[in-house]
Automatic annotation (TrEMBL):
<feature type="domain" description="PaaD zinc beta ribbon">
    <location>
        <begin position="116"/>
        <end position="156"/>
    </location>
</feature>
<dbReference type="Pfam" id="PF01883">
    <property type="entry name" value="FeS_assembly_P"/>
</dbReference>
<protein>
    <submittedName>
        <fullName>Phenylacetate-CoA oxygenase subunit PaaJ</fullName>
    </submittedName>
</protein>
<dbReference type="Pfam" id="PF23451">
    <property type="entry name" value="Zn_ribbon_PaaD"/>
</dbReference>
<feature type="domain" description="MIP18 family-like">
    <location>
        <begin position="9"/>
        <end position="74"/>
    </location>
</feature>
<dbReference type="InterPro" id="IPR002744">
    <property type="entry name" value="MIP18-like"/>
</dbReference>
<dbReference type="InterPro" id="IPR056572">
    <property type="entry name" value="Zn_ribbon_PaaD"/>
</dbReference>
<dbReference type="InterPro" id="IPR034904">
    <property type="entry name" value="FSCA_dom_sf"/>
</dbReference>
<dbReference type="InterPro" id="IPR052339">
    <property type="entry name" value="Fe-S_Maturation_MIP18"/>
</dbReference>
<dbReference type="InterPro" id="IPR011883">
    <property type="entry name" value="PaaD-like"/>
</dbReference>
Length: 158
């Protein structure tokens, strides 16, 4: 069981390859179905329509097969909905060290988070601007730092 959990937790996000699905907070549970004896991995999708989820499902099954569970099942739960607040501190640190600005915490009272909180992952300056709503993937936006002129990806808060 521990090997199954470790194998699933080590699967990396196909779009942001520096962080694992556990870092992202989308790995909900790894259990054995008492009826079938099969390992069941439960995940919650990130951004709606993110094509990466199909890749993640395939990668989880492949990782579990390598760990000795060739008949593992991957289930998807949509409630409660994933939010960028589920990204772990370790995940945020890995994003920052890869030059990707982590998402700001989202306020749950319906107030849109201040995009002013986006800081340059290279120099830390808050003097940044959004160049494009879509960066290298639909889940990221392209930003630029006015202080050091470097463009960077920002994982959108959700
Ligand atoms: Zn900068």
């Amino acid at each position: 069981m521990n090997s199954a959990r470790e194998a699933a937790a080590a699967v990396v996000d196909p779009e942001i390859r520096v962080i694992t699905i556990e870092d992202l907070g989308i790995l909900r549970s790894v259990e054995v179905d008492p009826g079938t004896g099969r390992v069941v991995v439960t995940i919650t999708p990130t951004y709606t329509g993110c094509p990466a989820m199909d890749v993640i499902r395939a990668d989880i099954r492949r990782a579990l097969a390598v760990a000795g569970h060739p008949d593992a099942e991957v289930r998807t739960v949509h409630s409660p909905a994933w939010s960028t607040d589920w990204i772990t501190d370790a995940g945020r640190a890995k994003l920052a060290s890869a030059g990707i600005a982590p998402p700001a915490p989202v306020r749950r009272d319906g107030v849109v988070p201040l995009t002013l909180a986006v800081r340059c992952p290279r120099c830390g300056s808050p003097d940044t601007e959004q160049l494009s709503r879509f960066g290298s993937t639909a889940c990221k936006a392209l930003w630029r730092c006015r202080a050091c002129s470097e463009p960077f990806d920002h994982v959108k808060a959700l």
